[in-house]
Amino acid sequence: MGKPLVSIVSAGLSKFGKHEGLYAREIFATAAKEAFDRCPKLNPKSDIKAMFIGHMGEAYEHQGHTGATAADWVGLLHVPTTRTEAACASSGVALRSGVYAVLSGLADVVLVGGVEKMTHRSTAEVTEYLAMASDYPFEQWNGITFPGLFALIATAHMHEYGTTERQMASVAVKNHFHGSLNPKAHMQKEITIEDALTSRIVAWPLKLYDCSLITDGASCVILTKPELARKYTDQPVHIVGTGQAGDTIGLYERKSLTSLMSARLAAKTAYDMAKVRPSDVDVAELHDCFTISEVVACEDLGFCVLGDGGKLSESGETKLGGRIPINTSGGLKSKGHPVGATGVAQAYEIYLQLTEQAERRQVKDAKIGLTHNLGGSGATAAVHIYRRE
Amino acid sequence: MAQALPPQYISIGENKMPSTEPFTIDQFYKNLAMGKLTAGKCLKCGRIHLPPRPMCSNCFSQELEWVEIHGKGKLITYTVIHIAPQQFQNIAPYPVGIVELEYGLRIPGMIQGITQEKLQIGMELIIDFGACSTTQTWPEWPRYCFKPT
């Protein structure tokens, strides 16, 4: 087992859903407040020496410079604060930036988070803003949306491995079941395979229930050096592996359309650093922006062999109680996908799981957790591995 | 580096194209407006780039030349977009795919002149210049799409 790189001593998450009348910075404050309240020994103003916040789009609220606004609204006005942007992996890379900061020795305690406010915009507007994370001159130019990009992956996966629409739908059913157990999930409602298969087409073969939700939300974790963790909590969760890798902005330029090289490289780095194997992982939060994305992620992370991701989901092994429960939070599919918040929201779920605070969706005796956060169609991937003390 | 430029002109079809034209995406679209599908070839390592790049991302060389790519290729994956961004809503639903051209180069594009039921991975498609108009105002690039051969 690899040595702890940094320790998570607290975490917070806003309710995911529609926050009418709230501004992103206000939602972020609710996530930070939970993290502060959960850790009474932390004095935010004197202890926190740096802050990284993932946020993807200025277009939603006509507001950039998110580091400054977020720091002010959480009471950390003069703290060095940096916004990270890597599309839907914006806070996955914020988390990694927090690891850099702590390991550099420049900041003993770091606040890492993410936020996005999306629901006040129309679906067409959100579709357009999200597409900005894909290649403009060839992909957006040809009318390819984000669901469109993952649909191109899905069609190729179906052709190459015989993956079925029903198998993809089983990911949605499972994640909606998990979401029904999460009081902070956007949609706390179970669905059936038929609901998923008969929902309206977004980008064939992907239908409405293959797609994650347009959601408002914010996430936050507090990191520190492992040797200081006990000062703040009796239940630290250690990050033991971090990996990040990139790939071409355009999906079309990649050799494989059924596997994401960025995710495979990031996973290898994280696994090697953590000295764990895929079979050691007890619980994982994967980037299910679309059902096919979870299918491919299971393969890229080594939870099954290439091509078997659909079968793995259909077998029930990725459901709570199965061999490797995936997206116990409900995932992006059911908990929701406020894009900038997602990476750290995944870390929040793993923190709850490894500290036995996940209540009705608790994975029994979970010791090792993993998060997998994608930006765009995989031009960025961030993988983190966690273990409890 | 600038001194070591390749022979000044290379022939692509009937038009002579100066290799001194910048190896940019904008130039790619200017070539497209002339009915030429082009890519940038690195004279040092031989890598062909589509989209073109001013510096070879394989060997960092800036010695490049334009090569014309045949517009015929093979469909390797596709989808049909139903929920479209604002500027494409008037033509939704529309099929888009990724087409593999010669040298293993790939490019995405809309597919016209075929119904979804007839789309098949592996089928042959050919580029069509100047298809599909939208309400787009920037940039002033020409459109292209693919059609069955």
Spatial strand sequence of the major β-sheet of chain A: 3-2-4-7-1-8-11-10-9
Determine the mean pLDDT of chain A.
97
Show unreliable segments of chain B. 1-16
CATH superfamily of the largest domain in chain A: Thiolase/Chalcone synthase
User: Could you say how many structural domains of chain A there are in total?
Assistant: 2
N-to-C SSE string of chain A, H for helix and E for strand: EHHEHEHEHHHHEEEHEHEHHHHEE
Helix and strand content put the structural class of chain B at mainly beta
Most extensive interface between two protein chains, with residue counts: A-B, 36 and 33 residues
Task: Give the spatial strand order of the biggest sheet of chain B.
Answer: 8-7-6-9-10
Percentage of helical residues of chain A?
25-40%
Name of the level-1 CATH class of the largest domain in chain A: Alpha Beta
User: Could you say which overall geometry of chain A the principal axes of the C-alpha atoms support?
Assistant: globular
Shape of chain B: globular
Structure report:
The complex is a heterodimer of chains A (389) and B (149). Chain A has 389 residues and is an alpha/beta fold. Chain A folds into 2 domains: 6-121 and 215-237, Peroxisomal Thiolase, Chain A, domain 1 (3-Layer(aba) Sandwich), CATH 3.40.47; 132-212 and 242-388, Peroxisomal Thiolase, Chain A, domain 1 (3-Layer(aba) Sandwich), CATH 3.40.47. Chain A has helices at residues 24-37, 44-47, 66-73, 90-104, 123-131, 146-161, 165-179, 193-198, 229-232, 261-274, 291-300, 309-314, 331-334, 342-354; strands spanning 6-13, 50-54, 81-84, 109-116, 201-204, 206-207, 217-224, 237-246, 283-285, 368-375, 380-388. In chain A, helix 7 (165-179) crosses helix 11 (291-300). Chain B has 149 residues and is mainly beta. In chain B, the strands form 3 sheets. A 5-stranded antiparallel beta sheet of chain B has the order 8-7-6-9-10, with no helix packed on it. A 3-stranded antiparallel beta sheet of chain B has the order 4-3-5. Chain B folds into 2 domains: 2-68, no CATH class; 72-148. The A-B interface holds A 123-125, 127-128, 131, 137-145, 147-148, 151-156, 159, 200-206, 250-253, 257 and B 25, 29, 50-51, 76-86, 88-89, 91, 93-94, 96-98, 106-110, 116, 121, 134, 141, 145. Strand 5 (201-204) of chain A pairs antiparallel with strand 6 of chain B, so a sheet runs across the interface.
